[in-house]
Amino acid sequence: MSPNLTERPRQDRATKLFVPELVYFEPDALNYPMGRRIEAWAIREGIPHRMTTSHNRITDLPGNSETEQYKIAKRTLVVGLRKTLKFDTSKPSAEYAIPLATGCMGHCHYCYLQTTLGAKPYIRVYVNVDDILAAAQGYIEARSPEITRFEAACTSDPLGLEHITGSLAETIAFMARQPLGRLRFVTKFHHVDSLLGIAHGGHTRIRFSVNADYVIRNFEPSTSRFAERIEAAGKIAVAGYPLGFIIAPIIWFDGWQDGYAELLTRLAAELPPEAGRDLTFELIQHRFTKTAKTIIEKRYPKTKLEMDEEKRKKKWGRWGQNKYVYPDEQAEALRMFLSERIFEAFPEARIEYFT
Ligand code: SF4
Q1: What is the pLDDT of residue 3?
Q2: DSSP characters for 134-150?
Q3: How many whole angstroms separate alpha carbon 143 and alpha carbon 17?
Q4: Is the Cβ atom of 113 under 6 angstroms away from ligand 1?
Q5: Could you tell me if 174 and 140 are in contact, meaning their C-beta atoms sit under 8 angstroms apart?
Q6: Mean pLDDT of all residues in the chain?
Q7: CATH T-level fold of 19-187
Q8: Is residue 211 within a helix (H) or strand (E), and if so which, with residue range?
Q9: Residue 118 burial class via C-beta count within 10 angstroms: exposed 0-12, middle 13-18, buried 19 and up
Q10: Residue 314 and residue 208: Cα distance in Å, rounded?
Q11: Cα(36)–Cα(28) distance, rounded to whole angstroms?
Q12: Least buried of 165, 204, 235, 344, by fewest C-beta within 10 Å?
């Protein structure tokens, strides 16, 4: 195996589908059709693959330094079963997080997975989708007659893995049959073609993470380019899916007004008319914890990401750690400016929250 340690520079060529450089299978994975399908795919693609007793026991990743091992781990796939079928909550975007995968091949500097996945940033996919969907059914029934929303992108970017797993397609089809179930996920990838023909029943909202060009260029290596995400969003709208955009993280950089105004102008100019039919926006300002800052500075030492605690407001976080957000005045300026640009560009759109 010769891992390519170079992050892909942002160029105008099409972003390719993710192909891991190493695949591990946990013991029972090959007893499931998805596990066997992934094994056949790995063989066809010539990807080295081996068995492991558990993802926790993976200690033989190549790489001479922690940084190298981190980069290799992000190109390593672990195929196993989801054992915990108790779902986390996922406020404010949904009631529950539905666990289809953990980890991501993207290298977004600010990504909170840097902290939550700790020293094990490899990508895990789960072959027992039927068990996961049965658990979702239980949650839906428990909340009946309320609608229950499930977020599929809390611990991963599942669209970036869909060509390997097919689990989003299964979950979309399952939710279409649930009068009280809704699925949503967000992505920075553009490979949507396999989802376009699914009978989704309008029960899945697909959101694209978008940002000012400055943010995408500087902080989002190894994800699809802005133009690709917009084109994919257009296809999703034409296929009749409810569509959304998450602008996150909203960053206060020199020229942010121009950057975010241009973002909204481009969205309005490039999306097909179908996109305006049922469109939502979610707005999330940049935040970090001290732990995240230490990890980010180690993994991306040249990052331009501003993480100066002195310039931020301290806020008590859900995971028992203080997080640093923008001071109220700056946060409010960002919220107002973006809301105005959104309603100018899409008068019918809904802003679901700013946080
Ligand atoms: S694409 Fe999303 S999940 Fe993946 S690294 Fe970037 S922010 Fe994290």
Answers
A1: 37
A2: HHHHHHHHHHTTS-EEE
A3: 37
A4: yes
A5: no
A6: 93
A7: Rossmann fold (3.40.50)
A8: none
A9: exposed
A10: 29
A11: 10
A12: 344
**146 CA from centroid of ligand 1 (Å):** 31
The candidate with the shortest Cα–Cα distance to 312, out of 296, 294, 289, is 289
CB 182 within 8 A of CB 175: yes
Tokens found for residue 309: 């605690």
User: What are 260's two structure tokens?
Assistant: 């975010």
Pairing of strands 148-151, 94-97: parallel
DSSP letter assigned to residue 333? H
- Substitution candidate for ligand 1 out of 113, 114, 209 with most atoms within 8 A of CB: 113
CA atoms of 201 and 177, how far apart (whole Å)? 8
pLDDT of residue 276: 84
Task: Measure the CA–CA gap between 52 and 188, rounded to whole angstroms.
Answer: 30
The residues, any chain, with a CB within 8 Å of residue 271's CB and separated by 6 or more, are 230, 233, 234, 237
Nearest protein CA to atom 7 of ligand 1, as residue: 111
pLDDT tens by residue, 110-155? 999 988 887 788 999 999 999 999 999 999 999 999 999 999 999 9
Whole-number pLDDT of residue 319: 66
Closest CA to 195 of 155, 152, 225, 141: 152
List of the chain residues with pLDDT < 50? 1-10
Map tokens 């063989």 to a residue: 43
Tell me which DSSP letter residue 178 carries. Answer: -
Query: Domain residue spans in the chain?
Result: 19-187
Alpha-helical regions (H) of 46-148: 66-73, 113-116, 129-143
Nearest CA to ligand 1 atom 2: 157
| Burial class of residue 270 (count of CB atoms within 10 Å of its CB; 0-12, 13-18, 19+) | middle
Residue 232's nearest CA partner among 244, 249, 250 is: 244
Neighbours of 145 (CB within 10 A): 6
